[in-house]
């Protein structure tokens, strides 16, 4: 019997999308202002559309090429099914569509926020945050809808809609990986291309406009000003949306793969009220519940007083955020205890099978929620205005740009200390609670509030744009004051949002990494093998080179923009007097084309390296398992180094930015108040120039690099592994031989040798259990329970001081 | 019978030291000039002595504390012998003494070089290079002498001077690791403390002297000027010397450990003309030969023409360098083929025992020599004057300090690409040739020319100092011109020397890492175990935080110096008029104390983390093997990340430095010649300020961090492993069961299950061999050969299409 529970996530996602449609209609109904406001807003909207259209053209080519390659592979390699191509295309289309919704609503909400700010602050918050909510629900809703729908489809297609064995489920999930790969490919374009776009436009507008022509920021006479405003949306809205869409899908997918592995460890099948796939459905159910919880959270974000300050606005956001995190914790408790068997068997490498209660899985989800919350505080500490690291950078600005930059670099570098200890602790704890399934579920729980996180995140650039529109259309000062309050809160949420995005990318990659190992069927990744170690080095290098390429790309794209703006200033008569109209669209086109062109090389690096590592040694006849291990080493290298460089670059960039901003309100340096225009401020501006590509281009790109690397690995895995997750437990006879040596009551050791046949070859697996006699005996007893049906040949006699042997023969439950 | 060959390295080292003593006497006999020259030189000499004495006081405390800790451990842990304490103390003393020789000769040679430059350039080169030669031979001679003497002593103490079994040899080598640990501890003080010293003095002298008081560089009125000149010797001479001393000793040690492992893989004993320890003696023999070869190399470094330019001087150095590399290659061929058995058995993880010919070991040494040469070219490309990366940074300086810094960072980051691919290729190739023994011998061959490398390296700062003395003592311009030629060549050799130091640190760490695995007896380091993966993350983070702490330390130490210089300018009457004498010694004292104080925190981080990882889980009762694997993951993380950050920081720093220097001769930017004093030059100076701590403090410190981490791991290893390298092959009966499945002539698979008893527990090891029938059969035949004496129970019949079984019982040769 197939449980109805499989439909739950789709229903939740649909509810989220319906709610989004209503919200969107409501936002669009709001007053969009008039005259100049509308004109500017329309320019930004059109510029955003221009970027999207150019991106889609390039994307279409990319998707076609990859689809053809995937199709060829699926016809050559028997373990890969052609439906992965369909999943890939849909993954790309869904992610692109989610980005489209986000960009459109953001560029429509900005002017409405400005208009609302003319009457009241609570209204301005409501509209800007509702715009963010539409974005958040669009991303989360489409992610869960797409993933779940394809899962159900493949579940019926490959398994007839009911449990057969873990090998068939592996094929379902391998094919589903195409959806995730499609989504993450879009993220590459949106996050990396978008990151280059936003900084190229920014630098180009500033260098010629502010520096050479001496006109203020956001001045409509500057041909690049629209591109600059579009850039905020391209980078911060569409880029972040695609990033989290990718993380969301990949996390849930990885958790499902590991859920299947749990079932395998339990003997190849379980019986529960969910068609025997409870552990696989659980991550989707948590994601589905997260959507409804996020809606509840967004409803709590409101302020009443028109005289509210930043702290009240921040308080309203925090209330919504913390409530949704608490609700996710509660729903995790309910779902985990309801959907999972009370106790499960999980294989721990080197420790053998262990009995894991469902409560321990719940604790793992708590670990994920805590990491999501703490990483935001860590980021906030290292980049927040008025915090000690920022004050130190401000002090160091007094001795020049050199010392400012050293201080900023050092801050970013030191910030890796608590962040990495947090991640390492999270990996350890969630694994200790419930193995890699626990790690993946920790990530799933953290990602459950994605819609809420994105709403908080997207509201920032909307408020920023609203402020720009207020400035350009010369509104009353009170309007700008109100949007400034929102913008200031938005800056804080942008920093914490980046922390959340890194954490999600890190945990997602780990989950994918674990899923990879199970797909390939390797015993683990042993870095004492030199080729694996060599690949760990190569993987570690790639994020560093990727970052450099992304930074150089910004420089090149900005130079093209500079030349175009110079040309317009020279060629268009009356442009400086305001009588000649600048050709905004040309600047938008240049930024668009340059950004998409310049992302090719880093993109190629990301995609090319894993393919080379997998296929070049294959051509030379290397053993597939050895290749799989090398590729795993590469993935680990990219992940470790990528996480470090993401934290370093994001936090250094954020710190420089706020060190510079500190001068706006004035700072005390060596007992003297120092303001904008001072030498120290100029040094801080130089620091910010360095920090800009760090925090908006290369830093956030790391998320995509590490996730995409692990996903490509996952898609290659079946080619290398040839379905070595073959459900040998379920299909063939197994012999377990236990050699128990009792030295004393406190010291016993059992060597368990499992012999089974796989692909016609007899294989042996060895586990060693050490500990007190009681512990060891309990573990041996457990091996005989749940899912594995054994018969003893020799009874163990714990009093004897010498090695004894016991043989357990397993007759699987579902002999096919 | 004990071979005389064991004495060869000691004889070679002694010859090297005797040659050094003569060279030193010759240099000291040269004319040291008079008057002001002598006075300045004496100040520098006394400053250097002051630093050394302060360092020795701190070192003494450190050595006592560590000795007590080691002694306690050696009494508590039965697998550790108290003689490790003696080895540790001697390692520290030898390294410190080598540094002492180097510092003294460098500070005595500088003024003699100035004096020689008054008469001729060939003489100036001869004296400065001879000073470098004394340094190089002192380091290499003492390293080989100390290590070999202790090896012979322990070989007699633990084994009675003749082969017993690999377990006893493991104890010898574990105890010998104390010598290496002592040497590397000194390197921590010399390299990290020295790096902080040199930059603190430099920045302090410049900030108050050049910027605030407006007096030129090297002006004797500046109280910090002597400290600044001392700093060059402390950082570039003593720091580099201690660094390479540590690498040299550690590399040879690691190769010896892996040599012992080869003997173990060959059944626990071999018979050769070297007392059965040929593979263990070989690395020492190569090191010994390297000393004599280096002497020959240094003899070739001379020029004849007084009108020679940089290229001729460089050519003379290259001639000596390339000749010594070629001679090492030849001597490796001779020693390898002479000292190793013609074919050896080596265990390759996951591939089982393989037969390795001694020629393949020779190829591995060639890999090391190639890496040493190529890495220098790579470094030279990314940091060399007139090369494309530098020209790009120069161009980017025209748009300000921000773009200059982005360009410099990007250059350093991109330079990791060829460097890491080179290292990865070297690991792969040397491992493919001869396993981890091959990796360690590649490192040994590369390090064989250490004396020559150091001579080339130390000559640079001597020439630099000679130029400073010429300037301060107001010599004829021709003198400065001649020293400038030497200085300019010295700058290039400094960059390539840093490349060599990184390469040596990287290969040394890999060799130590491999030795660690054999000491602990773990099966490998599986990063699919979450605690291991978590430690890989933590390890990756440590170099980043270490670098930040080192950078901050420079800032703090420089601030103390600034205050002292300001005080002297205010308090000493007539100081600016040249009538009052500045208190140079106070500045030297401040730089000394501040640098040693500020290196505590990064030092603690380096030593503390591995101890915490090893002992905290032990207190909580974690399994030792699991801890060993975690610590291995940590070591790998530190190594991979440390190598990356070393390359990044060294090359970025070097690139900024030369971008700045490019302005001295003038550069073309956008069609215009631009010189010193331009805005672009000022931007380049800012870049150089950031680069200074990168290339002189945090970058080079990475070498010490990664080596010391791996060495601490190696010293902890026996505590964790409890001598699990127990020579089971030699002492107990082994059963090998071979299951051969022949699918076709092209596809056969053998599963070899080895059962043996270790520490009273029966253990099983499984190897899988796949390939053509012929290959598989050959491998099975090999298992029965060399060192392992087997008897077949079933004959294999290759025509059968089904699984067959064969059992081999091994009767070891040296049954004890």
Q: Which terms summarize this structure?
A:
homodimer, 816 residues, alpha+beta, 21 helices, 74% helix, 7% strand, disordered C terminus
Task: Explain what the structure shows.
- The structure is a homodimer of 816-residue chains.
- The longest helix of chain A has 48 residues, at 166-213.
- The two termini of chain A are 18 Å apart.
- Chain A has helices at 8-29, 35-76, 83-117, 121-159, 166-213, 225-265, 278-299, 310-339, 358-383, 388-397, 401-414, 416-447, 450-472, 477-520, 530-571, 584-598, 600-619, 624-665, 679-721, 728-731, 773-784, and strands at residues 343-348, 352-357, 667-669, 672-674, 734-744, 747-758, 761-771, 804-810.
- Chain A folds into 2 domains: 4-721, no CATH class; 732-810, no CATH class.
- In chain A, the strands form 3 sheets. In chain A, strands 7-6-5-8 form a 4-stranded antiparallel sheet. Chain A has a two-stranded antiparallel ribbon with strand order 1-2.
- By secondary structure, chain A is of the alpha+beta class.
- In chain A, β1 and β2 (352-357) form a beta hairpin.
- The radius of gyration of chain A is 28 Å and the shape is globular.
- In chain A, α9 crosses α14.
- Chain A has 21 helices and 8 strands.
- Chain A is 74% helix and 7% strand.
- Chains A and B meet through α11, α12, α14, α15 and α18 of A and α11, α12, α14, α15 and α18 of B.
């Amino acid at each position: 019997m197939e449980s109805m529970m499989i439909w739950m996530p789709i229903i939740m996602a649909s509810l989220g999308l319906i709610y989004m449609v209503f919200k969107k209609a409501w936002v669009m109904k709001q007053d969009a202002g008039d005259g100049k406001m509308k004109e500017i807003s329309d320019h930004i909207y059109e510029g955003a559309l221009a970027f999207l259209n150019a991106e889609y053209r390039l994307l279409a080519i990319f998707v076609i090429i990859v689809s053809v390659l995937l199709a060829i592979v699926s016809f050559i390699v028997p373990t890969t099914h052609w439906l992965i191509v369909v999943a890939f295309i849909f993954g790309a289309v869904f992610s692109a569509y989610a980005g489209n919704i986000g960009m459109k609503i953001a560029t429509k909400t900005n002017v409405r926020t400005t208009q609302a700010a003319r009457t009241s602050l609570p209204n301005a918050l409501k509209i800007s945050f509702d715009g963010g909510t539409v974005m958040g629900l669009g991303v989360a809703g489409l992610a869960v809808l797409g993933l779940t729908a394809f899962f159900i489809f493949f579940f019926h297609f490959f398994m007839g809609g009911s449990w057969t064995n873990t090998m068939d489920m592996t094929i379902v999930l391998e094919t589903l990986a195409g959806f995730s790969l499609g989504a993450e490919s879009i993220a590459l374009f949106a996050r990396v291309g978008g990151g280059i776009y936003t900084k190229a436009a920014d630098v180009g507008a500033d260098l010629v406009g502010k520096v050479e022509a001496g006109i203020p920021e956001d001045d409509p006479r500057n041909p690049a000003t629209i591109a600059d405003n579009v850039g905020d949306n391209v980078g911060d809205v569409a880029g972040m949306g695609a990033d989290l869409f990718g993380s969301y899908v990949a996390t849930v997918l990885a958790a499902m793969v590991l859920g299947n592995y749990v079932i395998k460890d339990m003997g190849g099948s379980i019986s529960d009220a969910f068609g025997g796939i409870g552990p696989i459905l659980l991550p989707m159910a948590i994601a589905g519940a997260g959507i409804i919880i996020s809606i509840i959270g967004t409803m709590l974000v409101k302020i009443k007083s028109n005289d509210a300050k930043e702290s009240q606005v921040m308080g309203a956001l925090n209330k919504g955020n913390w409530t949704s995190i608490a609700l996710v914790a509660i729903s995790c408790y309910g779902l985990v205890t309801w959907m999972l068997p009370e106790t499960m068997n999980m294989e721990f490498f080197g420790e053998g099978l262990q009995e894991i209660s469902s409560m321990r899985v719940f604790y793992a989800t708590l670990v994920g929620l805590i990491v999501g919350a703490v990483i935001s505080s860590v980021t906030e500490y290292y980049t927040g205005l008025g915090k000690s690291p920022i004050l130190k950078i401000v002090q160091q600005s007094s001795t020049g740009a050199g010392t400012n930059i050293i201080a900023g670099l050092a801050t970013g570098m030191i910030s890796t200390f608590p962040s990495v200890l947090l991640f390492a602790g999270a990996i350890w704890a969630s694994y200790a609670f419930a193995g890699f399934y626990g790690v993946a579920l920790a990530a799933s729980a953290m990602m459950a509030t994605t819609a809420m996180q994105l709403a908080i995140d997207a509201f920032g650039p909307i408020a920023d744009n609203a402020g720009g529109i207020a400035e350009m259309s010369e509104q009353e000062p009170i309007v700008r004051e109100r949007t400034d309050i929102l913008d200031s809160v938005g800056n804080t949420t942008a920093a914490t949002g980046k922390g959340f995005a890194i954490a999600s990318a890190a945990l997602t990659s780990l989950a994918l990494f674990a899923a990879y190992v199970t797909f390939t069927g390797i015993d683990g990744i042993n870095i004492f093998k030199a080729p694996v170690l060599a690949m760990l080095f190569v993987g570690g290098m790639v994020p560093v080179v990727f970052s450099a390429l992304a930074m150089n790309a910004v420089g090149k794209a900005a130079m093209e923009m500079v030349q175009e703006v110079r040309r317009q200033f020279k060629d268009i008569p009356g442009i400086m007097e305001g009588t000649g109209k600048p050709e905004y669209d040309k600047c938008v086109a240049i930024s668009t084309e340059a950004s998409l062109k310049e992302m090719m090389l880093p993109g190629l690096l990301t995609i090319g390296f894993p393919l080379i590592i997998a296929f070049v040694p294959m051509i030379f006849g290397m053993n597939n398992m050895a290749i799989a291990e090398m590729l795993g080493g590469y993935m680990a290298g990219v992940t470790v180094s990528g996480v470090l460089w993401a934290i370093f670059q994001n936090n250094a960039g954020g710190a420089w930015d706020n060190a510079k901003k500190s001068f706006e309100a004035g700072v005390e340096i060596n007992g003297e108040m120092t303001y904008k225009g001072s030498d120290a401020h100029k040094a801080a501006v130089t620091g910010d120039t360095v920090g800009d590509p760090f925090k908006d281009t290369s830093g956030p790109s790391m998320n995509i690099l590490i996730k995409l690397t692990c996903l490509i690995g996952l898609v290659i895995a079946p080619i290398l592994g040839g379905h070595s997750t073959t459900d040998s437990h379920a299909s063939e006879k197994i012999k377990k031989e236990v050699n128990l040596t009792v030295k004393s009551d406190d010291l016993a050791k059992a060597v368990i040798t499992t012999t089974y046949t796989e692909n016609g070859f007899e294989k042996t697996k060895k586990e060693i259990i050490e500990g007190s006699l009681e512990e060891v005996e309990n573990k041996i007893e457990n091996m005989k329970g749940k899912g594995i049906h054994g018969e003893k040949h020799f009874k163990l006699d714990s009093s004897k001081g010498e090695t004894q042997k016991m043989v357990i023969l397993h007759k699987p439950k579902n002999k096919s």
